[in-house]
Design goal:
Layout: E1 2-5, E2 8-17, E3 27-34, E4 38-45, H1 50-69, H2 74-84, E5 98-104, E6 108-114, E7 120-123, E8 126-128, E9 133-134, E10 145-151, E11 156-161, H3 163-166, H4 180-194, H5 200-214, E12 223-231, E13 235-240, H6 249-258, E14 262-266, H7 268-277, E15 298-302, H8 305-316, H9 327-337, E16 340-345, H10 351-355, H11 361-378, E17 383-388
Helix pairs in contact: 1-2, 6-7, 8-9, 8-11
């Protein structure tokens, strides 16, 4: 998920893995976007593992994020969460930890941490120390409440983890006291050096995968990694359908050549128009789903309205299983990986469709583009521009 900041993007991602033998993860992550200037991410780790831990973590995460979204202070929010949690010294039900990251005013990060390992800050690929304030009255034999404020810049990265990550490998020959936050910091620094354009969610997957490897693929605890990454926005161009005025056909090729980000062309007729407009360097006949002969920024050439419709369904219902190699799945992945997306939707009637008995192709394309723009805006917080030609 991303949120626009002046000239930059605040991207969040996370990845969870349950304890070996469990189907439910006892760690819970919640994210919310409040307008254009505020973003909240909460990580809660229910004590123990399994369903009870998941329930406790869900209560803590939802209460914490809701209270802070309604401008409660960190101490007020923690008070309310602690009152909702049972006293584990007297009851068998679990409690939960709570870490809240709040990005405010485009360039400030507020952290509230209770019970989880301390978040790590990286600037230009290197770890940077963070000074924290300990709040008296909340220190106990478990963990103190700490808060801090951090200035964020383009290139800033904040990593939050549950203790299943920091304690991975505890008792082993290589990690007798666990992987530790120092080990995690070194791993992240090396990973950023080798993968400078990494997305937040991919970094989280890699951190969890490394911790799982340290645990010999039998994690002794739930493992979760969250990341907040401030970076330059990624631009994408989607072209579907020929322009109603044939005089604008050449403009499509110009848009492709001048675009600095990813390009997807949806529709065989559209692809042939773009190829022709690019001149003698390109074939007038474009193989199905092939980018051969196109500039390097053209990452995908697919069928038109049907692929867009299937892609939209995948984005609307991301929990449903998909085949990642299909054109619709590839398009969905591209859309999720970019931030500012321009859709050029042609409105010319397609004689080829009429010959096949389809006489509503223009209206169908409009409806599909509208659905796609809505889901990208409302569910994935993308900046969308739709231009009808």
């Amino acid at each position: 998920m991303t949120a626009t900041q002046a000239g930059s993007i605040c991207e969040t991602g996370f990845f969870c893995m349950p304890k070996a033998g469990n189907s439910v993860c006892g760690d819970v992550v919640e994210t919310r976007v409040d307008g254009t200037l505020r973003r909240l991410l909460v990580l809660s780790d229910g004590a123990g593992s399994g369903v009870k831990a998941h329930v406790a973590a869900t209560i803590a995460a939802n209460m914490g994020i809701t209270l802070l979204q309604n401008d409660c202070s960190a101490t007020q929010a923690l008070d309310a969460v602690k009152r909702a949690m049972p006293d584990t010294a007297k009851q068998s039900l679990p409690y939960a930890t709570l870490s809240v990251a709040e990005v405010v005013n485009k360039h400030r990060l507020r952290l509230m941490e209770y019970g989880n390992p301390p978040a790590l800050l990286f600037e230009n690929g290197s770890e940077k120390g963070v000074a924290r304030q300990i709040h008296n009255g909340y220190a106990n034999d478990f963990s103190p409440l700490t808060t801090c404020e951090i200035a964020l810049n383009t290139g800033s990265l904040v990593v939050l983890v549950s203790d299943g990550i920091s304690q991975a490998g505890t008792g082993s020959a290589h990690y007798p006291t666990g992987w530790g936050m120092a080990g995690l910091a070194l791993f992240v620094e090396n990973y950023l050096r080798l993968n400078p354009g990494v997305e937040a969610v991919e970094l989280c997957r890699s951190v969890v995968a490394k911790a799982n490897q340290i645990e010999h693929w039998q994690p002794a605890d739930d493992m979760t990694c969250c990341a907040i990454l401030v970076r330059k926005p990624r631009q994408m161009l989607v072209i579907t359908g020929p322009p109603v005025d044939m005089a604008n056909d050449g403009m499509l090729a110009q848009k492709v050549e001048s675009h600095g980000g990813d390009v997807a062309i949806c529709g065989g007729t559209t692809a042939r128009i773009v190829a022709k407009g690019l001149g003698a360097k390109f074939s007038a006949v474009v193989p199905k789903n092939s980018t051969e002969g196109f500039p390097s920024q053209v990452k995908l050439v697919t069928e038109g309205a049907l692929t867009l419709s299937r892609c939209t369904e995948m984005l609307e219902h991301p929990q449903q299983p998909v085949q990642p190699e299909t054109p619709a799945a590839q398009l969905a992945a591209m859309l999720q990986a970019n931030d500012h997306i321009c859709i050029l939707a042609g409105t010319r009637f397609n004689p080829a469709n009429y010959a096949e008995g389809i006489n509503t192709d223009v209206e169908m394309r409009r409806l599909v583009v509208k659905r796609l723009a809505n889901v990208l805006t409302n569910k994935y917080q993308k900046t969308i521009e739709v231009v009808y030609l």
